[in-house]
Amino acid sequence: MPFDRTRMTINYLTMEATKQITRKLTGSKAMAQALEQEMNRDKNIFIMGEDVGKYGGIFGSTTGLYEKFGQERIMDTPISETGFIGAAIGAAAEGLRPIVELMFVDFHGVVMDQIYNHMAKIPYMSGGSVKLPIVLLTAVGGGYSDAAQHSQTLYASFGHLPGMKVVAPTFPNDIKGMLISAIRDDNPVVFMFHKTLQGLGWMDQLDASLGPVPEEVYTTPLDKAKVVREGKDVTIVGVQMMTVEALKAADKLVERGIDAEVIDLRSIKPIDKETLLKSVAKTGRMVVVDEDYYSYGITAEVSAIVASEGFKHLKAPIARLAIPDVPIPYSRVLEKYVIPDANDIINAVENMVTY
Amino acid sequence: MPFDRTRMTINYLTMEATKQITRKLTGSKAMAQALEQEMNRDKNIFIMGEDVGKYGGIFGSTTGLYEKFGQERIMDTPISETGFIGAAIGAAAEGLRPIVELMFVDFHGVVMDQIYNHMAKIPYMSGGSVKLPIVLLTAVGGGYSDAAQHSQTLYASFGHLPGMKVVAPTFPNDIKGMLISAIRDDNPVVFMFHKTLQGLGWMDQLDASLGPVPEEVYTTPLDKAKVVREGKDVTIVGVQMMTVEALKAADKLVERGIDAEVIDLRSIKPIDKETLLKSVAKTGRMVVVDEDYYSYGITAEVSAIVASEGFKHLKAPIARLAIPDVPIPYSRVLEKYVIPDANDIINAVENMVTY
Amino acid sequence: MKKNSKQDLLWIYRKMKTSRYFEERMEKAYLEGKQPVFNIGAGPVPGEMHLSNGQEPAAASMIVNLTKDDTVTATHRPHHQAIAKGVDLKKMTAEIFGKKTGLGKGKGGHMHLFDPIVKFSCGGIVGAGIPHAVGAALANKKKGTDRVAVAFIGEGAVNSGAFHESMNLAALWNLPLVVVVEDNSWGISVSKKNSTCVPTNDVRAAAYGIKGYGVRDNDPLKMYEVSKEAVERARKGEGPSIIEIETYRYLGHFQGDPELYRPKDEVSKLRAKDPIERLKKYLLEETLASEEDLRVLDQEIMKEVDNAYEFAINSAYPEPEEALEDVFV
Amino acid sequence: MKKNSKQDLLWIYRKMKTSRYFEERMEKAYLEGKQPVFNIGAGPVPGEMHLSNGQEPAAASMIVNLTKDDTVTATHRPHHQAIAKGVDLKKMTAEIFGKKTGLGKGKGGHMHLFDPIVKFSCGGIVGAGIPHAVGAALANKKKGTDRVAVAFIGEGAVNSGAFHESMNLAALWNLPLVVVVEDNSWGISVSKKNSTCVPTNDVRAAAYGIKGYGVRDNDPLKMYEVSKEAVERARKGEGPSIIEIETYRYLGHFQGDPELYRPKDEVSKLRAKDPIERLKKYLLEETLASEEDLRVLDQEIMKEVDNAYEFAINSAYPEPEEALEDVFV
Ligand SMILES: Cc1ncc(C[n+]2csc(CCOP(=O)(O)OP(=O)(O)O)c2C)c(N)n1
Ligand SMILES: Cc1ncc(C[n+]2csc(CCOP(=O)(O)OP(=O)(O)O)c2C)c(N)n1
Ligand SMILES: [Mg+2]
Ligand SMILES: [Mg+2]
């Protein structure tokens, strides 16, 4: 949804290409670069989705690819998610490597059967004889008043179900590396990208959405969390925008004499226990922050893992911040209230250190 | 799917009607009785679903109702879940009170959009001006080799999403009372009934599936767990078949000198924290058992609640037993391995008391 | 055109004009706070904004045949239908501004307008409103009324599974349903040619053994005629039907759409055939109204719309904690 | 019927017979451990069991036109198509018995048979296999082959959204796809009359601008003729088509179905027109085979099937921990 350039100034974050090996890219450009490089490598890869062609993906995931690969490999589809995501399964079973985009994760309900009963289970039900190397790209996240049907993350709705790897990288560098890993994986991978972290000219401009990305091809593991800030007093675990908020909170906590460690979860399924447990063994305290719904979400799973396996290290109960089990409201003041932010994190940490 | 009575002996669990006020009913008969009594009370109630008519519901939920109410109120539908569950929303908005059956919860993926983006959110998005008094009946559970697409419970897939009350009663008495409450509730309620607890003549015969049910109309709260066995050494939390297994385990634990308290969760959303916390304050130990997938499931949410709010009472880490994040396999030996049972619970408890 | 339709045609004109003017103001309101740098989340009207300028005949010429008690379900592009259906304009505008006085107390937003008093709803998921209309039609039938339900959808939505399941149900149960397909040639950037395997969707009525109507070139008069017939048939228990109207999308899919996918002159060609101007000409030619009548009418319309904006702008925002209310009744 | 079809007709006979005999044995195997008290989870073959006795022409008379490299997707009632497609009978039987030697190492079961060597798959969700066939057809086209994909579905599945989305995609992209609708009159207990708003589903081809064929009365010869044409058209790039065959379901929806919803004499009437017997009569009358030829053939078939059962019964069950394998490759 790039804004009409003829009518208005856009704050272009994307930097010009240079000859340097590592340049700064937005999340969206990192995605498009990963896709392009992999499509050049492997002719079996093709992309299907709504508006992935000339439009370049509503959230810029396929920018420029239609021009490079043409409509045979970058296929616009009708609004038939069950049809075309189901078709990806059939094509993958024939040896192709489809990448399909579900425009907003919020629409998963029209196609969940194909995703979780077929894509995720056929490899298992076939005893491993059918491989389904599919990447399901989908945009997640709120914070820009797109209301109840276009603002969700639904991390746990996917994480709960077996047979899919589910990732949600935050920074451009990870976006590229994890997308390449996802494409090369012979299993179904749900690749969630956060709209606000795509660095699009028509959304909030965040520093986090622009970052150094090596020009060459590289892979980043699909099952590892990452310590993005080291600290010793408390561990804050986030994903995507909540990682960004956690870093913001950590910066402010310094002023209050608190040294927070921030973990970017990156992988929703499987969760990287080791990184979490190692951190909590050091800090003894944990806040988990999620842009998904509270109940049965990331805050529950991470708390459960750490409370069980890191029991002896915990100096205080784990704090859970997430959307309080309400649909995401439209009005800015309401939406802001339900999505956790740096202030909420700071409050949670402060309550905790005085526990 | 009652077995052909002309060909084979059936083990009839259902007792003959008597003049007594409370008689023993199976889960299925308890459901049908609740539906019948409420339909007699309120002409706005009608039922739609596949095979709910003459067949009486594949798992006996609507037994005998077609004969009593006719096809205007007990409507067989085509295999069009999005169509008819979506139609329930439209009809509810017009003041009717539809009850719709999704034959197996495993099929939710073809209709999840109607359920979670519309049924669950319209009341909120309308600022409360649209009420949707809908009951979504759906059969859950495995254990009889129905394989990956017909054996799931998916408790957390529903529990994670806001706007629906989600219940999963175990015993006939609760089934009737909670179904009546669900029907009378002005909000969408997902009512999950467990196939094996319906007391059907063609499945495993369990004592738990037959129990005393008052003939008169009564309601049971939709948001309360129930202590079904008092004990002091450890709390075992289950739902439906896992409650049954927990009770079995508790009986055996007595022999080993362990006095277990068993809680039947009953309500998946919201979870009744008070009952859980009260119990753990007494026992200091907890095992959570779930027939749903492990990650982001009931074991996570209950652990997180208790680890956070009951932190100071815990003498050992909470143990989590659930399906180990694999699709449900067909072969009996494999399926038995992935679904927790009394032995698994006993082992978990024994590990825990020696913690 | 029968003589007794004068009132109807003036009504259609009024509703088309109201919608047009309402959206012209919305276009401006939407850009507030988004200049010089566009940011979708900024300004008094944040989020996505789908305007229907050019598509007014689909709504007004159909809904003139409905009463307050008939049901309409609409889409992510709902203003023209909402206005024609008589949704409270003040509350609707307030909702779009995210105010407490809005239809949904600020919780719904522009894609989620619910006015049960006039039985109007819409939503952001393509195709999803059709089953709701089927349910309303079912309720109408069950209650023994002669009320109908009308589902408005885009041509893109016809390729969704929800369409097919709904049409089969409606035909099977012989429900009083009319589905209006607003064929504006585009589903975001995907042309009808690239989404739909048949040239027109009225032929798909054959798959359900029901009536299919086609209206060419955004014609408000023809749309009126055809809708009248379809609604009357539905009222009389003669079953559902599909109407596809070729219509025009003047603006981008949403505000901010760069529209690089369509020919630069497409819109100017369409604007030259503006349906409101065409109807106006017809009204004058047939002396159903005078220039002066229409001038007065236009002023009334502007006043009504301006009042609604004023109400919306002057209303208070909800308190943050109200976010937690209304999940359950 | 052309002369050169002799081989094909004998093949069809063989496949129909194999399926019939396979399922007759299955009916018995399924009841083991379920007598005197029926318990769906008991015995060597637990779980649901959907048999296709009576529906053999749909599968055999279509698949005779396919090669190993063409793709077939089937349903919850998959044995007749699997056998016609040449799925490894031993591994298939072992799978149904839940053995380690099965197609899916015992993880799939009777509704989930996957044999990538002959490009066969099926599944337990109504309608869900159609998009998979679309994807296979798309792959065939992308690879520049003349391979086709055939989706078998029941008449009940035609009312699912998946059907509609798939047909539109296939027609839009002009894919080599044939959808075979096995109309056995019932979707569990719901009759076609109560599920489908049109009498026959071939008319629904009009909604996609493609060819629709109807085959009456379970006729294996007519099915052969029509399928041949549809497959040839698909191979030549002339696009998808729909074939609906009126067929018979001799048994309950699943084993254990009390079948209280259908007339007691329905099945006996159908059985009197058994398609295998009809084809046999035709083969003899047209002297395409002698009684002796067919007797020998029948014996071969029984041996093949008996061997498969023996293999299955003698195979080992998986180890419990193997449940944790194969989630990811
Ligand atoms: C199920 C679903 N898929 C995709 C989208 C994203 N989307 C919103 S509007 C739209 C195009 C709709 O086209 P059409 O039905 O022709 O309506 P129009 O926008 O032209 O009025 C798309 C793809 C959605 N909202 N829901
Ligand atoms: C999406 C979905 N809805 C419902 C079911 C339950 N179900 C299994 S088979 C069946 C009937 C199918 O009828 P039809 O397509 O005619 O096939 P048949 O059984 O007659 O071969 C139903 C409703 C299912 N498996 N999947
Ligand atoms: Mg359109
Ligand atoms: Mg059938």
UniProtKB/TrEMBL annotation, chains A, B:
Gene3D superfamilies membership: 3.40.50.920, 3.40.50.970
UniProt keyword annotations, A-Z: Oxidoreductase, Pyruvate, Thiamine pyrophosphate
MF annotations from Gene Ontology: oxidoreductase activity
Occurrences of domain Transketolase-like pyrimidine-binding (ranges): 25-200
SMART domains membership: Transket_pyr (SM00861)
Matches recorded under CDD domains: TPP_PYR_E1-PDHc-beta_like (cd07036)
Needed co-factor(s): thiamine diphosphate
PANTHER family: PYRUVATE DEHYDROGENASE E1 COMPONENT BETA SUBUNIT (PTHR43257), PYRUVATE DEHYDROGENASE E1 COMPONENT SUBUNIT BETA (PTHR43257:SF2)
Name assigned to this protein: Pyruvate dehydrogenase E1 component beta subunit
Naturally occurring in which organism (per UniProt): Maribacter orientalis
Top-level taxonomy: Bacteria, Pseudomonadati, Bacteroidota, Flavobacteriia, Flavobacteriales
UniProtKB/TrEMBL annotation, chains C, D:
Top-rank lineage group of the source organism: Bacteria
InterPro entries for the chain: DH_E1 (IPR001017), PDH_E1_Alpha_Subunit (IPR050642), THDP-binding (IPR029061)
GO molecular function, one term: pyruvate dehydrogenase (acetyl-transferring) activity
Signal peptide: none
Domain Dehydrogenase E1 component: 47-320
UniProt keyword Oxidoreductase, yes or no: yes
Coiled coil start-end: none
Keywords: Oxidoreductase, Pyruvate, Thiamine pyrophosphate
Cofactor: thiamine diphosphate
GO BP terms in the entry: pyruvate decarboxylation to acetyl-CoA
Family matches, as Gene3D superfamilies: 3.40.50.970
A Pfam short name: E1_dh
Protein name: Pyruvate dehydrogenase E1 component alpha subunit
Natural source organism: Maribacter orientalis
